Amino acid sequence: MQNYKKFLLAAAVSMAFSATAMAETLKMGIEAAYPPFNNKDASGNVVGFDKDIGDALCAKMKVECSVVTSDWDGIIPALNAKKFDFLVSSLSITDERKQAVDFTDPYYSNKLQFIAAKSIKDFKTDADYLKGKIIGAQRATLAGTYLEDKLPDTTAKLYDTQENAYLDLTSGRLDGMLADKYVQYEWLKSKDGSAYEFKGDPVVESDKIGIAVRKGDPLRERLNKALAEIKADGTYKKINDKYFPFSIE
Questions:
Q1: Mind listing the pLDDT tens digit for each residue in 15-53?
Q2: Cis peptide, bond prior to residue 36, ω within 30 of zero
Q3: For burial by CB atoms within 10 Å, which of 63, 181, 224, 236 has the most?
């Protein structure tokens, strides 16, 4: 009887170990340099709105997920090179990107808006005023594309990260900045951003942000289902309210 009990215990442990070993694991790609949506805390852990959304989706799909960080410029090629399984890093859904990846339903809506020093009282967002001005934006973003396509007489200075763009703005190397409104909203509340403000109305009102997967990957539908579930059960709102006093859905 004693040996039989030991056998049952060993079998149970073996089954539990096998079930754990067989649990599905996924990797989420994140830039980790775009607060409050994604960045690293003092301990080097990836945090932010995107990370929390990714974790919530993984919980709904009942899978184990880990984070893989990637430089922004190469983040879509990294996805297609299978360095991670899905990309949740505030990526605008554009026709050009749809040629390289598939997107889920949008998980938030963004706007593009200029900021500049509060001391510049006459700052305008029209092409005539911005002619010859130096305006910063992050490279390979909707803001960077807008500057190059819509304001060809403006000098667009593009940066590898949003944080580096802010450094040049506060150092006086830029006349203004164009970026996502909700990223700028966070920065304007900081000590460095306190001397700056939004200028004019948003120049893009409805920039839809999606999660990217490789072309044809059925993971897209699973993510869409999980996204609908976290919106329905209040999880999405809790994450939203953690970072913003208004809805960004």
A1: 444 444 458 999 999 999 999 999 999 999 999 999 999
A2: yes
A3: 236
Phi/psi-derived region of residue 199, left when phi > 0, alpha when psi is between -120 and 50, beta in every other case: beta
What are the Cα distances from residue 28, in Å, to 15, 50, 102? 28, 10, 15
Ranking 21-25, 156-160, 186-190, 219-223 by mean pLDDT, the lowest is 21-25
Q: How far apart are CA 168 and CA 93, in angstroms?
A: 28
Spell out a b/e string for 212-239, using b for 16 or more CB atoms within 10 Å of the CB, else e. bbbeebebbebbbebbebbeeeebbeeb
Q: What is the DSSP letter of 233?
A: S
pTM recorded for the entire structure: 0.87
What tokens were used for 137?
């934006």
